[in-house]
Write a structure and sequence with these properties.
The protein is an alpha+beta fold and about 130 residues long. The protein folds into 2 domains: about 60 residues, no CATH class; about 35 residues, no CATH class. Helix content is about 20%, strand content about 15%.
């Protein structure tokens, strides 16, 4: 059984570990294996297994797949968000605001209001 699972898993990648329930044949409906994969290669969702006199199709289900960009071959994002393929457009409005922010802007002269004297003294409290 281990040899057969290794052959099937080799279509997807390199077999690392066979699940203990699969190895002990507790579940008969599916096999669960840990496979090291090269994401630059095509992902298969079905594999045709051929033996002498018969063949059958095996469905492949992935528990978890990281985001992988097929354009720049990096993990962490997919091709629709690739910075190399879709360069960010500079926001011209923000650039103008920054340039304007560096200019000296004349300010209005403030009208000063005289301060009323504190007849009770600084920090005094009033009891009513």
């Amino acid at each position: 059984m281990e040899h057969t699972l290794q052959e099937i898993a080799s279509a997807v990648g390199t077999l690392l570990v066979i699940d203990s329930a699969t190895f002990k044949r507790i579940f008969g409906n599916y096999a669960r294996v840990l496979v090291e994969m090269d994401f630059s290669k095509k992902l298969f969702h079905e594999i045709m297994v051929e033996r002498e006199g018969f063949s059958f199709c095996v469905e492949v289900a992935y528990d978890w797949l990281p985001n992988f960009c097929s354009h720049c071959q990096n993990l962490g994002h997919n091709v629709t968000n690739c910075r190399w393929l879709y360069a960010r457009k500079e926001n011209i409005v923000n650039r103008e605001k920054v340039v304007k922010g560096k200019l000296q802007v004349p300010s209005k002269k403030l009208d000063w209001v005289p301060i009323q004297e504190n007849t009770f003294g600084v920090g005094s409290s009033i009891a009513f």
